[in-house]
Amino acid sequence: MLGLSLGTLAAVAWRAEGASTLGPADWAAVRFTLTQALLSAALSVTLAVPVARALARRRFPGRGLLITLLGAPFLLPVIVAVLGLLAVFGRSGLISQALAPLGLGPIDIYGLRGVVLAHVFFNLPLATRLILQGWLAIPAERFRLAASLGFTAHDVARRLEWPMLRSVLPGAFLVIFLICMTSFAVALTLGGGPRATTVELAIYQAFRFEFDLGRAALLALIQFALCAGAAALAFAVAVPGGFGAGLDRPLARWDAGGVWLRVLDGMWIALAALFLLVPLAMIVARGLAGVTDLPPSVWQAAGRSLAVALGSAALTLALALPIALAAVRLGGPRGAALQAAGLMAIAASPLVMGTGLFILLFPLADPVALALPLTALVNAAMSLPFALRALTPAMAEAEAGFGRLADSLGLRGAVRLRLVLLPRLRRPIGFTLGLSAALSMGDLGVIALFADPGQATLPLQLYRLMAAYRMEAAAGAALLLLALSLGLFWIFDRGGRVNAQA
Amino acid sequence: MRLPIIAAGILCATTAVAETPVLTVYTYDSFVSDWGPGPKIEAAFEAVCGCDLRLVAAGDGAALLARLRLEGARTEADVVLGLDTNLTAAAAETGLFAPHGIEPPALDLPVAWDDTTFLPYDWGHFAFVYDKTRLPEPPDSFEALIAAEGLKIVIQDPRSSTPGLGLLMWVKAAHGDRAPEIWAGLAPRILTVTKGWSEAYGMFLQGEADMVLSYTTSPAYHLIAEGDDSKAAAGFAEGHYLQVEVAGRVASSDQPELAQDFLRFMLSDAFQSVIPTTNWMYPAVTPEAGLPEGFQTLFRPETSLLLPADRAAAVRDAALAEWRDALSR
User: Which terms does the UniProt entry file under GO BP (chain B) (predicted)?
Assistant: First the structure.
């Protein structure tokens, strides 16, 4: 995995002719990148806490569906999500139209606020999901005990929820920070111009505008260093929750029955749903007209994308399980370092990774012929950080709670995995498979760098439709993509939750 | 009796396959898409060349050149199609291209063409496209655009997009040393800058901006494919910057003659007649049947601006710095 992220970078640096230095514009890009990533991650995580808490302690019809739907923005190709967001928050969007009769507006979101708004739109669902996992990982017995001790909601927050958040929040913050670090098209479009130049755009410029591979590699290295620094910090802050094991009893909450708390939770859920689902509804509404007469090539591309997504999901799990297991076994700083290494793929510039792969493969094989497997591989690398965030804490809990019992019974290797770990990892495994499949489905990825005409994936076909002025058909393809991504995610995630009341 | 005939047939077929030469053409992504010229051109050329035409896509024009530079002389490409005059100087400098060695037919370009390495296959003018129903009186120059309070345009980033770079050159060619001043004046009109053409055009169609940087030929798509005549290109008094898209043959090609055949075919009716309604550009040689119905209604600039390839390469970095400084304020 390090080979894929650092090795490709090294390949680009190796092909460079001579060293390069960075100018003031590059440092401005570094500053802007850090600012927007910090703000976006902080806001996403802060808002996700009350939403996740509300979802954790309320049961209502359609809750599972809502949680799945909330994940949609994260899975969409950037261009589609941005157009959906603008349909609500743009100059001619729903809000501006509603304000117009009052003599107000149109609202102007372009600038740092637009970048942060978009990043929160993309990442709030992910933060909510990761934090919700933390909540669901608190054994039901702890809440029983809390109830028998007469804990109020405040006591529960202090004794149970805060320690859980201390262990979960740094990781969630880090993942989102890293995603925002490599953002490029979103930051530029909503940032309103070259003020919003990120390091990734500077890499783009160095590579295709100046063909200065040395500078591209240097910038990618800086991006890496910043991400590694953030990772070190996040792992230093995180404190394991230490809730011990439970018997997987159905969860009941006695502490949150008050009317005021119900209203508060309802409000948070409604607000999050409105913020995330209205732009999504706009994408669906736009796509309905085009989805009925999509050309056959779009359906073929959808089939190809499904294959890539399933391959990528299997690959992600095959990579993530051993890494998570090793990280838990090693423990301490070495385990954290291993986890951090797994996270690094997120910090890799997709352009550098694709170019590096190309440089490495070109002398050996035809990269074009390998375009689809390579796309699946790179997608798996990109999903790995999320997989590790979901799997490692659950694995650590399972080992902490049942490891000694398993040791005393002499359970090892495959048997231990099958009897002790896998049953307790069902939920994170389902989540991992679902997320990696859906992410791969919506990712344009390296296929755009070397595709031949017959190999287009659905996102690539969508971009091609747009480039050929066919915006209506592109909107239809976007709807198809949305449905397939969510469907994949739902099936796997559901599969992981069979027999579980959650 | 039948077995030897079948065997002979198989033998013939295999030798035929073995002898079919393959011509590899690197081009940009939208050329090879199902809605681009690629599929029709592949069929038409294969019908006459007795060869297998392999189109390989790599992003856009700039990505195409970067790809070729990465591969160097070991490239499989025989022909590269889809560079423009902003890239030809850098492309020629790589030494990877061979002179085309062809006497081209009379070209219908707004400028004279004497490049011995690259041959043009289509062209178009950059322009700001607007919706007549929403903007009855569009500005008619950069100065007028600067003065049009409240008007918002979307442009593309010159670092990641071909039209974006075209606008940079347009302002430079039209206003020379006054370019920084023009950009400073345009800054409040610019709603945002996008990564590529698709994002910007999508935002414009969604009603987010009043005008979008595109081509004078863009309204033809809406007119011909959608029967919608509400889109038009605003004519600017300074003249419009020209984009000429070119192809060249690669020096290391193992099919030099076939590559030349392709370049000749590129300027023939079979290729040129496909261009207007797939690439939505003007063909370099007007087909015998003329341009498709609807192209006559398009705005044709009287003045074409085009910096020569070497000059475009020389001013590029300074023009980019001016652009960035003016818009970063």
Answer: thiamine transport
CB contact under 8 A, A79 and B221: no
E strand or H helix at A98:
helix A94-99
Residues B229, B95 within the same domain: no
Residue given tokens 């012929």 in the structure block: A369
Helix, strand, coil % in chain B, rounded to nearest 5 = 45, 20, 35
Smallest CA–CA separation between A69 and chain B, in Å?
24
Q: Which helix (H) or strand (E) holds B224?
A: helix B218-226
SS3 (DSSP) at A157: helix
CB contact under 8 Å between B328 and A194, yes or no, is yes
pTM of the model: 0.86
Any chain A CB within 8 A of the CB of B24? no
CATH number of domain containing B162:
3.40.190.10
Q: Are residues B143 and B111 in the same domain?
A: no
Closest by alpha carbon to A283, among A64, A76, A26, A447? A76
Cβ neighbours of A470 in B, within 8 Å:
35
The domains found in chain A, sorted by start residue, are: 2-8+36-495 (1.10.3720.10)
pLDDT in tens, B47-94: 999 999 999 888 888 888 988 988 888 898 999 999 998 899 999 999
Query: In which residue ranges of chain B is pLDDT below 50?
Result: 1-17
d(CA A150, CA A238) in angstroms, rounded, equals: 29
pLDDT digit string, tens, across residues A353-376? 778 888 888 777 777 778 888 888
- Token representation of residue B10: 């198989």
Domains identified in chain B, total number = 2
Query: Can you tell me whether residue A375 is helix, strand or coil?
Result: helix
From CA A213, how far away is CA A177, in angstroms rounded?
A: 26
Give yes or no: residues B29 and B110 share one domain: yes
Give the Cα separation of A119 and A132 in Å (integer): 19
Token pair, residue A271, equals 């607000």
Nearest Cβ partner for A463 among B58, B198, B218: B198
DSSP secondary structure letter of residue A451: B
A chain contacts of residue B199, beta-carbon cutoff 8 Å? 79, 82, 185, 189
Q: Which residues constitute the domain of residue B136?
A: 124-242+298-328
Instruction: Identify the closest residue of chain A to B329 by CA–CA distance.
Output: A195
Measured in degrees and rounded to the nearest 5, phi and psi for residue B121 equal -120, -25
For residue A252, what pLDDT is reported?
Answer: 66
**If you compute the radius of gyration of chain B from its CA atoms, what whole number of angstroms results?**
22
Shared domain check, B115 and B15? yes
Q: Is B204 on the interface with A (CB under 8 A)?
A: no
- A255/A147 Cα distance (integer angstroms): 7
Residues B105 and B202 in one domain: no
- ipTM of the predicted structure? 0.86
Q: Are residues B229 and B323 in the same domain?
A: yes
- B235 and B289 co-located in one domain: no
Q: In this complex, do B159 and A205 lie within 8 Å of one another by their Cβ atoms?
A: yes
Nearest-CB residue to B190 (from A83, A193, A452) = A193
| CA–CA distance, A191 with A112 (Å, rounded to integer) | 6
Task: DSSP for B57-109, please give it.
Answer: E-SSHHHHHHHHHHHGGG---SEEEEEETTTHHHHHHTT-EE-----PPPP--
Greatest Cα pair distance in chain B = 87
Q: Are residues B146 and B223 in the same domain?
A: yes
Which residue from B75, B68, B115, B114 is spatially nearest to B94, judged by alpha carbons?
B68
